[in-house]
Amino acid sequence: MKLVGVDTGGTFTDVLVYDTDTGAIDSSKWLTTAGDESTGIIRSLDTLIRDHGLTERLIHGTTIGTNAILERKVARTSIVTTKGFRDLLEIGRTRRMVPDSMFDLRFQKPVPLVERKLRFEVTERLLASGLVHLPLDEGELVEICEKLRAVDTESVAVCFLHSYANAEHEETARECLEKYLPGVFISNSSDVVPEYREFERLTTTVLNASIGPILDRYIADLQAALLAKNASTKLFIMTSNGGMNTAHATRQMPVHTVLSGPAGGVVASLDLVNELEIDHAITCDMGGTSTDVCLIKDRRSEVTTDNLIADLPLKKPQIDMKTVGAGGGSIASVSPDGEILVGPQSAGSDPGPICYGGGGTSVTVTDANLFLNRLTLRTPLGGQITPQVEKVGPALNELASRSSVNDATHMAAGIVRIAVAKMVASIREISVFRGHDPQQCALIAFGGAGPMHATAIADELGITQVIIPRYPGHFSAWGLLTSDVRRDFVETLMTTVSEAAIPKIADSFSRLGTAAKRSLLLDGFDEATITCHATLDLRYKGQAFELSIDIDPEQLSADHLAKQFHDFYASRYGHANPDQVIEIVNARMVGLASTQKPQLPDAISLDKAQLEYRSVFFDEQINDVPVIHRSHLNIDEELSGPAIIEEHGSTTVVFPHWNLRRTQRDVIILNLKK
Fold first, then answer.
1. What residues have CB less than 8 Å from 336, skipping those under 6 apart?
2. What pairing do the DSSP bridges indicate for beta strands 340-346 and 312-314?
3. CA dist list (Å): 357 to 353, 386, 388, 461, 600
4. What is the spatial distance between Cα 305 and Cα 585, in angstroms, rounded to a whole number?
5. Backbone dihedral angles phi then psi of residue 286, each to the nearest 5 degrees
6. N or C: which end of the chain has fewer CB within 10 A?
């Protein structure tokens, strides 16, 4: 049987196929077709699998929903909310939600995702306790349905005040909307974010509704295409929290996919740090469009519920990652005052970088690396594109003429350095700015372009060890294959830490655990594969934000909870307030269903020693740089840089002051020369 991991990015679609009987692994890359992303998946499967009926499971990481939100190409969405809260989406928290905009004198508030004429109010009111203060006016609701039909809405976000405490009014609204608006996607806030904080609950529900019809059509089309190939494949979608979900569950809750693809790389990295017994690491996943970085501390990545996308809060559990617009396809330009800029605009897959030969005219990071001879004309980029350098030099010279750079070579080197600087700044945000020293971490570099820039990034951060995993160009796809099915459940408690609160906490965990298990059992997972993990969101009373603490529901006590929180708070902020009252905000439960995991075989070293020597520009031009295929590296033999290591889907650039070694498990470890 076959297990298939598919990671669809803005430029390439990466596919990895694992044969459970033989342990064989096949891979492919196809250019992503914007608007018809399933085409690349089916083409790749056709080249890798003869009998589609043997495909047992396909796990898919996708950026469909993310790109729709970022580009504002979402479904026509409406809001139905409590009377008096029509403008909550615009008012927000009366502060700028856009990062780095505090002192921007030219700042303009982003246009709301749902325009005002598509936001409707209905008479109803619940108290924070869940008690009904004003009953839902169902007559008004029917009138709103007529208005929604008149504006041809595709999706409706329903968000009533305090519905996390009592979902009755929202459920009634759903029944009414489904009756009068058949086929329209309905998203209730009590389903999406059943916890307090009205603004974040509204924005997350709106995001879910706005991409609901898009993901629903995409997944339906992909399932139909698989069935047309006689594949009775179980389709799963990677979710932002580091797990995967069934296609059916994803179509109901598409907002879980917002960081779908990048999450796979972090999952694979967590397995890798355990295998190598490394405590702290920073992941750097550089693809064609962007770079995603994540901090792994004590062999764990942080899952957060406080994130922004398109300037809107997204309150769903997701791996804490930072994304920056620096990828292989990031476009270089020169501003009117001569400043060199790189990204965030990308050449994407169409027309792509100049060297792709697809009609691109803008210089990209990939073009710059090719011109510096860090990439080769002999090896197809992405496994299918024969690079062309003829038009790259003139385009670099044209950019140089508009700046203070001397020639095309130094312009290319400058473009790469700027891209590296952007990635370094992003890594500092998740490490230095949060009190973590990157010099204590290894850098795990993957993605098609990650290994090419890894040692340069490490130099800037003072990192002395870089790790290039097996299949770096398909590492996120590998992470998809090793993921478990995950479901998150939450309940708002709003009580203080005391012995009197323990029964309330225990009851909440019991309900959440039962719901988690029931959800997984209904999807056909065996009870023996299911485990549950509990956490509490805690804060000092009066604070606005909380910390999430792992909890053992079988060993609950007020003293133990207090000590756990004080210790964790001190480790995060350097101090604690033992005399202050601790408030419990939410109880959370994660349900996991473990799946069959693929196993990588040991590395094999081929006899052929190296492919060629060539002249490569690093900080200066260096002649006779060895170019070696990864499979030709001898196991555990140390090689001194400079060197270029090539393989299908990726290239590792080893700067002169680095050594490298290929391990028995086919991991390349680079260490800074002492």
1. none
2. unpaired
3. 8, 8, 6, 35, 36
4. 13
5. -105, 115
6. C
Decide: 520 and 487 in contact? Cβ < 8 Å. yes
Decide if 645 contacts 632 (C-beta within 8 A): no
Q: How many CA atoms lie within 13 A of 203 on its CB side?
A: 24
Alpha helices in 449-557 (DSSP H): 450-461, 475-481, 502-522
CB atoms within 10 A of CB 274: 10
Backbone angles phi, psi at 42, to 5 degrees: -65, -40
Q: What is the DSSP string of 131-180?
A: -EEE---HHHHHHHHHHHHHTT-SEEEEE-TTTTT--HHHHHHHHHHHHH
Q: Using the 8-state DSSP alphabet, how is residue 635 labeled? A: B
Amino acid at residue number 238: M
- Pick 97 or 404 by higher pLDDT: 404
pTM above 0.85, yes or no: yes
- How far lies 384's CA from each of 37, 50, 387, in Å? 17, 20, 9
**Residue 443 CB contacts under 8 Å (≥ 6 apart), including other chains:** 281, 282, 284, 454, 457, 458, 461, 463, 465, 466, 467
Residue with tokens 């830490």: 497
Q: How far is CA 645 from CA 112, 294, 333, 546, 597, in A?
A: 47, 25, 29, 45, 29
Decide: 286 and 270 in contact? Cβ < 8 Å: no
Kindly tell me the burial class for residue 65, based on how many C-beta atoms sit within 10 Å of its own C-beta (0-12, 13-18, 19 or more). buried
- What is residue 387's predicted lDDT score, i.e. its pLDDT? 82
Helix (H) or strand (E) holding 662: strand 658-662
Q: Which amino acid is at 136?
A: L
Write down the pLDDT at residue 608.
Answer: 61
Token pair in block for residue 51:
């009998």
pLDDT at 98: 60
Q: Among candidates 650, 644, 648, 649, which has minimal Cα distance to 611?
A: 644
Token duo for residue 429: 């945000």
In whole angstroms, give the CA distance from residue 268 to residue 126.
44
Residue 670 CA to residue 663 CA, distance in Å, equals: 11
What is the 3-class SS of 36-99, one letter each residue? CCHHHHHHHHHHHCCCHHHEEEEEEEECHHHHHHHCCCCCCEEEEEECCCCCHHHHCCCCCCCC
**pLDDT at position 383 over 70:** no
